[in-house]
Fold this sequence. Notes:
alpha+beta; six-stranded mixed β-sheet; globular
Amino acid sequence: xAFWLVKSEPSVCSIExxxxxxxxxxxxxxxxxxxxxxxxxxxxxxxxxxxxxEEPVGVAGLCEVSKEAVPDPTQFDxxxxxxxxxxxxxxxxxxxxxxRFLRIFQRFVPLSELRKEKSLSGMTLLQKGSRLSVHRVxxxxxxxxxxxxxxx
DNA sequence: GCCAACGTTGGC
DNA sequence: GCCAACGTTGGC
Length: 152
């Protein structure tokens, strides 16, 4: 059982829209490092859902891996902004798991609060210049962040 | 295989 | 909207 964090712009897919939809293919990721992490996700792994780009930025809730990575259909769709002419059916470049909604935190955990927690300072998310949209998270850091979000 | 130019991400 | 920090591309 592994733990992850994915970033999403709420205007594209917020935790509320994931709740409404139940589950969604995590498509459109076009970064090799992020793709490699997406392919390592296993069914039932737990994922912190992070809102980026719009204030407030931070961890909004939890989802889980409901399907392991399949070829991202948008890479074959010439009408999609994620279309990749170099992808073929035989060797797709981009892969996406399916994520299923679990819950919205009682308390939104802002990035500023994560930065204040000394025990979290090793997280790749918090490292300077980090722009990756998918991160592996240690069980210790995961438990800490959940305790911040679920504390009453 | 280097690296300059360009594009993108994402916090602020 | 700015811009620092990255990632990718493509000429050589």
